[in-house]
Amino acid sequence: MATATQFHPLPVIGYPEAWYAKHIEDAHNAGDRHAHASYKVGQYVTLGLRADKSWEEKLKCFRHALKHYGIAPADADAVLQDFYRKLGDVIRRQAGQEAVRLSRAQADAWSIRLEMGSERAVVEDEAEVFFANLLGHSHDNPEWCGKESWQTLCAMRDRWI
């Protein structure tokens, strides 16, 4: 069983599903719930970054990782609380960067359309729907998004709406 003094590495992102499955099983069999959580974060973040997923599917992966693996257990000491805070930060950073990447791609497309003569009002209407789907209707930083990415997304949203 893992103890609070054992080192728990932060997850690696971008490995094949089989790699995560093996390491998750090994951590489970060893009774190391903290390594298990780290590998699960890596697995779900990697799934959330897949190009073939819609934003809704990506967000589901990021939120699942945060809810189930990015929160310290109730009995966690300060070291483990810090570890789980860092796991949550990994999820928020990756999710936020993915949202920024998608927003930049969409902004490039809108810019091209404006240069080709599309009406600004039409693009603004599309941007309003896009950012509402991406960020929701609140003006608060969503739980899945890192602060730096949130600031970038707000600036992009304000440019187009």
Task: Explain this structure.
The chain is mainly alpha-helical. The chain has one domain. It has six helices and no strands. The longest helix has 38 residues, at 78-115.
Quick overview:
The chain has six helices and no strands. The chain has 161 residues and is mainly α.
Task: Summarize the helices and strands and which ones pair or pack.
Layout: H1 17-30, H2 33-48, H3 55-69, H4 78-115, H5 120-135, H6 147-160
Helix pairs in contact: 1-2, 2-3, 2-4, 3-4, 4-5, 4-6
Q: Report the end-to-end length measured between terminal Cα atoms.
A: 52 Å
Q: Show unreliable segments.
A: none
Output the radius of gyration. 19 Å
* Strand-pairing-aware structural class: mainly alpha
Shape: elongated
Q: Number of DSSP strands?
A: 0
What proportion strand? under 5%
Average pLDDT taken over every residue: 94
Order of helices and strands: HHHHHH
Main sheet? none
Domain module count:
1
Tell me roughly what share of residues is in helical segments. over 70%
* Number of separate helices: 6
List descriptors.
161 residues; mainly alpha; 6 helices
